[in-house]
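User: Please run a holo structure prediction.
Assistant: Happy to. Please share the sequence and the ligand.
User: Here you go; the ligand is glutamic acid.
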Amino acid sequence: MTDKKPVRVRIAPSPTGDPHVGTAYVGLINFAFARKNGGRFVLRIEDTDRERSTPESEAAILDSLRWVGLEWDEGPDKGGDYGPYRQSERSDLYREHIRTLLDNGSAYPCFCTPEELGSIRKRQREQKKNKGYDGTCRRIEPDEARRRMDAGEPHTIRLAMPLEGETGFTDRLRGEVSYANDQIDDQILMKSDGFPTYHLANVVDDHLMEITHVIRAEEWINSTPKHVVLYQAFGWEPPVFVHLPLLRNKDKSKISKRKNPVALNYYRQIGILPESMLNFLGMLGHSLGDDREVFDLEEFIQEFSFDRVSLGGPVFDVDKLLWLNGVRIRDMAVPELASRLRESLFSQEAVERLVPLIRERIDSLGEFPDKVTYFTLHKLPIPMELMVKGLKTRTPAEMATLLKKCVKEMDGVEFAAEPLEEFLKGYCEEKDIKIGELFMAVRIAVTGRKATPPLFETMEALGRAAVTQRLLAAVELLKQVRL
Ligand code: GLU
């Protein structure tokens, strides 16, 4: 179908947190496919979630993709013929396309209030019926709907899914996939504030940006029938769909920061070389056709083929990543390794970040490395006796529960010294635990020491991923303590 058009692929991350290893994984496959086929690799920022999207997250995504070496041909920072590449700057386009859908009856306004939607859901639960919108507003006469919209009544716009039949598509890795239409919700395409949802913006942009192959993670496969219906509603030819297998933990659960760090910058911080990261991601679910395990990006591109992708749930095994990194470190020429070390541990930026924290505590520069080892160690030893000794009112098991909950609640906290301090103090109050007791446990968990620079500044400098990983490691150890 689209085979003769020049290949154009994209990744479309949402800037709502730390850049994820999954983004680099999907990025690598898109990049390799583009390079192999003389195509273009586009970076599009999907910031339709206005509440959660931040410019800091966008900057971090660009930075970490560049760090691993996946440079895009078109994107928000470098432009291109299909811009803007940030969805928040394309609102007019989405509004225009919504009008087309309303005019041809493929979408309809929904005036239901959040309360009404809540009671629909409640009714469905009680009657054990399918979840999803029940179509109340779909039954409003078009003239009446138009009148209410013109009168300024708040509304969303929903996709009018066909009520019968099936919607199918061919997935390049999975073959024919099809879904019964009556199982698919009348998805909201535009929110009441006039902003599009992912589904509308994604389809409009993929079409307007002439994306030929949508290569993305498996978690989007259930959205694809909605997208196919949208392509049909616009009268557009859909791209080729390729849904990559989800990365998994060793226990085969979907990777999550509760098991291993998933933030790319965490791996950068602990000194994984970018080429090791790419090499590792390239091994996940793709083989080079022989038993080569250590390879570089060029080799990967050369051998890349969808026929070599296996769907068996590739395991994101951090030990394997460390092994690969070790092989590369040992293979590297000394001057190269020396400069990599300087870049990683002693770059101006890294040192400037840490100096304010430790200058009070050193009398000679030589003491610096020892004072900051905990910023970069992947497996930081946690002195359990010290931690247990600090427990005055709680058992180790109780502290484990407290820390685990603390990690969870910290997800919603901005990762900077002040908000962290406020959060942790509030948490102590809520749980009725002495500040000193909880803070000491946190301090020992995240630094491995009792005496450190101020805790919250230290946590900020360590970053969310490292703090989370260490607190969870401490939770596991505390659970094993037998008094
Ligand atoms: N914004 C989606 C994400 O964050 C993009 C999914 C897609 O590639 O269609 O992953």
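The chain has 20 helices and nine strands.
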